[in-house]
Design brief:
Layout (H helix, E strand, L loop, with lengths): L1 E5 L8 E5 L13 E2 L3 H9 L4 E5 L11 H11 L5 H27 L6 H17 L3 H7 L6 H19 L4 H13 L9 H4 L7 H7 L2 H11 L5 H9 L20 H15 L11 H9 L8 H11 L7 E4 L3 E7 L9 E7 L4 E9 L7 E5 L8 H8 L5
Antiparallel strand pairs: 1-4, 2-3, 2-4, 5-6, 5-9, 6-7, 7-8
Helix pairs in contact: 2-4, 3-4, 3-5, 3-6, 4-6, 4-7, 5-6, 6-7, 6-12, 6-14, 7-11, 10-11, 11-12, 12-13
Bound molecules: fe (ii) ion.
InterPro entries: DUF3391, HD/PDEase_dom, HD_GYP_dom
Pfam family, one: DUF3391
Organism: Cupriavidus metallidurans (strain ATCC 43123 / DSM 2839 / NBRC 102507 / CH34) (Ralstonia metallidurans)
Length: about 400
Amino acid sequence: MLRRIKAEQLQVGMFVSRLGGPWINHPFWRSRFLVSSDEQIEQILAANVQDVWIDILKGRNLPMQSTPEVADSEVDAQPESGFEDELEHARELIKSGRAVIGSIFNDVRMGHALETNGALLLVDSASTSLSRHSQALLAMARLKAKDDYTYLHSYSVCALMIAVGRTLKLPDGEVRELGLAGLVHDIGKLTLPESLLMKAGDLSPAEYEQMRRHPSAGYRILNEARLYTNIPLDVCVHHHERVDGKGYPFGLFESEISVHAKIAAICDTYDSLTSPRPNHLAWSPARAMEYIAVRVDTLFDRRVFKAFTRTVGIYPLGTVLRLRSGRLAVVCGQNANEPLRPRVMTFYSVSQSAPLPHEVLDLTQSEDSVIAFEDARQWGFTDEQLMAMYAPHVK
Ligand SMILES: [Fe+2]
């Protein structure tokens, strides 16, 4: 996993993967190497190299206190991307994120301390991607295989929480903590047996009770890791609290639950419902939105839900809709003022049971309208196939 730093931040033990500027001018003919001496660093500085990409999976990382400034400047420097370009970045991010999360979780399973530097880098990379395009990482992170759920659920919730935090215009530092909270919210599940986590059928009352202990177990892990930042601790222990007081572990009521834990409750539920899990087929994003919407004010907070719908749309990208004209269409854009009338791309005629030439419609400008949302699989389409169809039309 690559990270860009200033050349003067280089340290012995870091693995250089790329040097900024035309490398032919550098005395370092091998552009990938482990920095083994101060002399090497002096040579790099003398060659007027400004930026260096280090691979933090192969060598030392920068100490913690340097992370925010570098991350902030990277965020500021990010130009907006097209959706398709950013999808490719998102695919790579998720791939490297899976490896980093896997190694963080393995360390915790083996009783080692939580490696927060790696986690913060993932948060910053998700944040940077969302700055370039607000939807690409969210759309890509939803596509996960059943086997990847444990790892990628954390990353998806991290990205969703950052995006909702931005919609709510929370300060940058708070949004960063929210992202970290998303990554570690379920870390207490690492204390549960794999057989329980992967169980395909319903849980017995005893197993359910065991599962309900993961927020407190997570809190203990974060404390042992000396991760004393408030938001991850709060989210870890309170993401299953519900506004009607029927959540766990404490049965807190609406005003007793922080906005951060309320954000986590919705992001966690949405990602769980839209992901394939051992005991659950992935729901369409619109079905998950409907599930949460009808539970606003009983399980979920109204203000946070509103921010969530502004972030991903009432009909999120990739949702299949049936139109009054008898056509199936996939959502390829939102209309902020009229969320029930998104931009769509038609692709299938229900009456003729046949594919249609693709046509993009803005439903705020069209005679046609939505009559229902559909499950893409029932029409023989995977989410990946739909993404390939609608991606070129996303603005
Ligand atoms: Fe949980």
